[in-house]
Amino acid sequence: MIRKARIEDIKKIHHLVNQSAAMGEMLPRSLGELYDNLRDYFVCIEGDEIVGTGGLHICWENLAEVRSLCVADTARKKGVGRAIVDVCVEEAKTYDINKLFLLTYQVEFFKKCGFTVTDKKVFPHKIWSDCVKCPKFPECDETAMIREIGER
What we know:
- The chain has helices at residues 10-22, 31-36, 80-94, 107-112, 124-129, and strands spanning 2-4, 41-46, 49-60, 63-71, 99-104, 116-117, 143-148.
- By secondary structure, it is an alpha+beta fold.
- The radius of gyration is 14 Å and the shape is globular.
- The longest helix has 15 residues, at 80-94.
- It has a seven-stranded mixed beta sheet with strand order 1-2-3-4-5-7-6, with helices on both faces.
């Protein structure tokens, strides 16, 4: 089951995201950043555990970022990540946003979800709002990807 994240989920999301970050799969997120952006996030629940998370962050008029997508080891290769991406796509459509982007180390996974590699320079709003706070800025080693989505 996938649902919007709640306040009581944040510490579990934080643990899951930073566990993936420790394995070099993504960049870490702070608790403060997750609380600030709670309404962006979805969680996938299996039993009473959060086994996946990801968010849709609106950046500009017709542009949103899929961010912090990660799945617990026990739930990988079961469609959880793809299901969260699909929910993000559907939510973007409800806001009439038809362009999604992300920065990732998981290029092959996102290609399977319909994203294509693009140049980071296409996203100046991301660079000046989030990237400047990153310890890897300006030497980012993530790959920028984009996906055009159709209407509802």
